[in-house]
Amino acid sequence: MKKIIDVKDLYTQFGANVVxxxxxxxxxxxxxxxxxxxxxxGKSTVLREMVMLQELSGGSIEIFGQDVTNISxxxxxxxxxxxxxxxxGGALFSSLTLYENIALSLQEYTELDKNLISEIVxxxxxxxxxxxxxxxxxxxxxxxGMKKKAAxxxxxxxxxxxxxxxxxxxxxxPISAREFDKLILKLRDLLGLTVVMxxxxxxxxxxxxxxAAIIDNKIIVAQGKLDDIISMDNPFIQTFFKADI
Amino acid sequence: xxxxxxxxxTSSFANNRLDFSLTGEINLYTLVSFEKELExxxxxxxxxxxxxxxxxxxxxxxxxxxxxxxxTFVEKQLAFSLTCKNEQVLNTLKTVHVMHLDLEEFGYKxxxxxxxxxxxxxxxxxxxxxxxxxxxxxxxxxFYLFKHLRSLxxxxxxxxxxxxxxxxxxxxxxxxxxxxVVMAYQSSVQLKIYGxxxxxxxxxxxxxxxxxxxxxxxxxxxxxxxxxxxxxIGAMKITEELDAMRTMGFDPIAFLVIPRIIALMLMxxxxxxxxxxxxxxxxxxxxxxxxGISTSLFLDRLNEVVAAKHFFVGIxxxxxxxxxxxxxxIFRGLLVKDDTQSIGINTTKSVVESIFAVIVCDAxxxxxxxxxxx
Lengths: 245, 374
Ligand SMILES: Nc1ncnc2c1ncn2[C@@H]1O[C@H](COP(=O)(O)OP(=O)(O)OP(=O)(O)O)[C@@H](O)[C@H]1O
Ligand SMILES: [Mg+2]
What we know:
The complex is a heterodimer of chains A (245) and B (374).
Chain A: E1 3-14, E2 17-28, E3 32-36, H1 43-50, E4 58-63, E5 66-67, H2 73-80, E6 83-86, H3 98-109, H4 114-127, H5 144-155, E7 162-166, H6 174-191, E8 194-198, H7 202-208, E9 211-216, E10 219-225, H8 226-230, H9 235-242
Parallel strand pairs in A: 3-8, 3-9, 6-7, 7-8
Antiparallel strand pairs in A: 1-2, 1-4, 4-5, 9-10
Helix pairs in contact in A: 3-4, 3-5, 4-5, 6-7
Chain B: E1 7-14, E2 17-26, H1 31-41, E3 47-58, H2 60-75, E4 80-83, H3 87-95, H4 113-147, H5 154-164, H6 169-194, H7 200-238, H8 241-247, H9 252-290, H10 295-305, H11 308-335, H12 341-372
Parallel strand pairs in B: 2-3, 3-4
Antiparallel strand pairs in B: 1-2
Bound molecules: adenosine-5'-triphosphate and magnesium ion.
Residues 43-44, 88, 166 of chain A line the site of magnesium ion.
């Protein structure tokens, strides 16, 4: 199996606050990989480091065989087109409509004509479960759950090979959340996506994840197949997975 | 890199049918070349047989394109056939469906020029009415606070005084000093011609006290505090902080608006005083170096010819200018809509409008003062 992401000895520090003290894990092609742990343990931070928004304090991260800590501007730009990111709060561009948000990278990075772009956008809007008439609304005019879906549609606009999701199902109603899980599974099968996901949603974790890493107290306390993790003897794991669904 | 994989084509034309086969990866970036190649090979009214056997992968955009292609052939009642051995590619082709987004369908249409004009006029009128209502709210807030002096937010007022006045002393002083220097230098050239050197004192004294110092201070403060009021309050509006305050019973008028207005109104006279002093210092320096008027002579003459009323007129303008700058800055902040661009637009407008308002107010003052004979 091909390694898509390889994190080695990752070390992160904000001032005197050490957030990660040596994380090691790797993510394989076509896998849905979970990064789990209590609030504030640095899950979002790992994601930010992977997508080059945050400098590492030490260690290295390789994505598609490229070391993102030591990469030229052009290579970085090229790499960015191969992934989509769904931020915890959506982060849609507030001065653009949903349509424009989703069409933006298509217009910037491809030479496709307007009609085809509008059809691609319509398709993305449809697969994430939004209605066509939502396309012309601004982010401030839609609900929190709709923002999540629109942000996913934007993350998918370039048909990326790799998808980073920060708490994708938080703020969604249970039905939408399950649909979202199904969508992620479908996309993985269809497009051969690799998905890196931070989540607190147990149902979603059980249904979608292939493997996971659990960060607690600056280190990875468990990683591997979900079944193996659940049986481990760690206070966080026990309370987290005991909350039966 | 991944997105740069090649796509190649072979095609043959026979019996009014185009056999077109592709090899490689069809994606967003290679799709355009496929489209062009196909268009150049396809003749009007010919049938198409696409061969995707050697396609390694396909993305949803290309799948949409191929589905659309099929639709157009079906519509024209021309034969279209597709062969593909790759399960995954077939799957993608099957799951993707062509959708249309039609603007007009949802009742969106381009407004005509007249429509836009009317809309704009009404919008402006609404804004003006809103400003009046905001003015009313502030006035009510003031009256309420004077009745309940204990609920005045002293801590916020001192914070705003420090942020918007104390920290502005330096830049107000420097700007005024430089303007004083420039004014004196420019006029000294003219005065020397007539040997009227000493009149520099009259000229600088009256113009700085009455007009220059208040206006200059107002402009610096509008650029400094007016813009920051708009940006701060606008950002608070976007992040729903204002709504949060309201639900917790913290009235934004009492917590955010009044302290800022009071702080600026209290401190503006002081800032104008600083501007008076430093402006004259600049003038004095040039008078000394260029016109040979000693400092003591300058001050004696100032005492003699420039009546104190000029100084007080200038200082008295301060609270009015401060009120305009603060209230316009805050009002613009409250007008910010839920997108980030509107912060920028409103900040620009707040600075321009408050400087304009200050100048209009100054003109009104000078008419009143002349008529009253001050
Ligand atoms: N820019 C920053 N400067 C200083 N400290 C930061 C910064 N970003 C994150 N941190 C700290 O790093 C730690 C991890 O933050 P992070 O946002 O990654 O948590 P998380 O695991 O995503 O939590 P949650 O589940 O609540 O989203 C926190 O203690 C936070 O205070
Ligand atoms: Mg987080």
